[in-house]
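Why should sequence recovery work at all? Because a backbone constrains its sequence more than one might expect. Tight turns favour small or flexible residues, buried strands favour hydrophobic ones, and helices have their own preferences. The token representation captures these environments compactly. In the example below, the structure is given first.
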């Protein structure tokens, strides 16, 4: 039991979102470590300050995706496998599976430029860390990036209802 979920609507919706992702990603095949990654995500959410629940939820969601083996490429081009400088902003392609080098980005459609700091955050979250903390527009950009990546690689194209409520965050002060 995690009674902290009843104390904050942001924490509650984040926990609902994590549960929804776990249900969507589950199948008849065994997913080694998935239970542990979901439990870790919920535990970190329960411990997070109310202002940090979005970051904790993103960390848990990315770690779950990593556990399932759908880790986005961040340091080498997802298309040609060329190294991407660690301090560079990079184009990100959901369909290609992550960051693209400059040459491949020019040839691809539907890419999104993500700052180096966002790549750093993804590396941390994928590795199981609950840091760094993101807020405001940066947090919303990370939420959108995750939703699009999840839908591309693991989703069945049905609406993620709990994710939508969590992502909208309409209960918070603007």
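From this structural description, the recovered sequence reads:
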């Amino acid at each position: 039991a995690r009674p902290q979920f009843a104390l904050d609507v942001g924490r509650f919706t984040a926990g609902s979102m994590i549960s929804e992702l776990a249900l969507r990603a589950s199948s008849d095949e065994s997913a080694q470590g998935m239970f542990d990654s979901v439990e870790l995500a919920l535990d970190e959410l329960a411990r997070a300050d109310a202002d940090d629940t979005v970051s904790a939820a993103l960390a848990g969601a990315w770690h779950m995706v990593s556990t399932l083996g759908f880790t986005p490429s961040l340091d080498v081009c997802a298309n040609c496998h060329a190294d991407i400088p660690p301090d560079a902003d990079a184009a990100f392609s959901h369909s290609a599976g992550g960051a693209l080098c400059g040459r491949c980005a020019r040839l691809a459609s539907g890419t999104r430029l993500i700052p180096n700091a966002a790549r750093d955050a993804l590396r941390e979250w994928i590795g199981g860390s609950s840091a760094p903390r993101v807020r405001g527009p940066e947090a919303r950009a990370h939420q959108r990036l995750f939703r699009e990546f999840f839908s591309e690689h693991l989703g069945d194209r049905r609406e993620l209802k709990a994710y939508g409520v969590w992502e909208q965050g309409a209960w918070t002060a603007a």
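A few observations help interpret the result. The first strand starts at residue 90 and ends at 93.
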